[in-house]
Amino acid sequence: METSNLTARQYWEQVKANPNRAKFGFGARPAIVNIDVQRAYTDLGAFKTAYETDPRQIEHINALSAQVRALGLPVVWTYVAYLESGEDAGTWGTRTNTPDSLQNIKHGSERAQFDPRADVQPGDIVMHKRMASPFFETNLWSLLTFHKIDTLIITGGSTSGCIRACVIDSLSRGYRSIVPEECVADKHEIPHFANLSDIMLKYGDVESVDHVAAQLQALRA
Question: What residue numbers bound the domain in which 130 lies?
Fold first, then answer.
């Protein structure tokens, strides 16, 4: 194993500045999946589980979603929530049992609500999920197949959890996976930057939001 004295942030900057693998790139039919842009993870004033990396994250997510929507392609918003019993969280819900615990994000609760800044439109697809990846036991894959999607833009949180899980499942199903850097967030910078590095080196393309916006604009030309 190679050793290093770099911080995760420094390592990410090094990886980003010196990409050593070809990019997957954009295809012709992108969809966007905005993962768990809900108050449990975005409302810093209300919930200890919330976090923020880029203060304009949701603004950027809304802008990219509007571009995908204008192409007539799927805009998907996921949220996580559980039964009153919490049993549908399975083993994942057995580690702790506090008001902040995962399985205590209940259907209809404030923690399950989308952030009011998120521009969820009537024609968008709202999808409930229970595990990290939005592909797990949902109809996401069949939906993307129906729309002949070849590229998945993945936003939301957390970078080290649901974003990473989605990227790996996306790649495993044959999609080009694009992560706009300003559109993902995590609780701490170490897992955030470490996982951005891992995603770029292995599973997908990590791009600036401006680059992703330009690629979407080119599809309208």
Answer: 26-220
> Using CA atoms in the order 217, 41, 121, 73, what is the torsion angle rounded to 10 degrees?
40
Q: Rounded distance, CA 155 to CA 206, Å?
A: 11
Does 121 fall in a domain? yes
- 3-state class (DSSP) for residue 152: strand
**Number of folded domains that form the chain:** 1
Angstrom distance (rounded) from CA 109 to CA 48: 15
Look up 166 and say whether it is catalytic: no
Whether pTM > 0.90 for this model: the answer is yes
Using one digit for the tens of pLDDT, what is the confidence trace for 79-128? Answer: 999 999 999 999 999 999 999 999 999 999 999 999 999 999 999 999 99
- Which residue among 162, 167, 168, 200 is the active-site one? 162
For residue 21, being part of any structural domain is answered with no
Query: What ranges make up the beta strands (E) of 130-172?
Result: 151-157
Cβ–Cβ < 8 Å for 23, 16: no
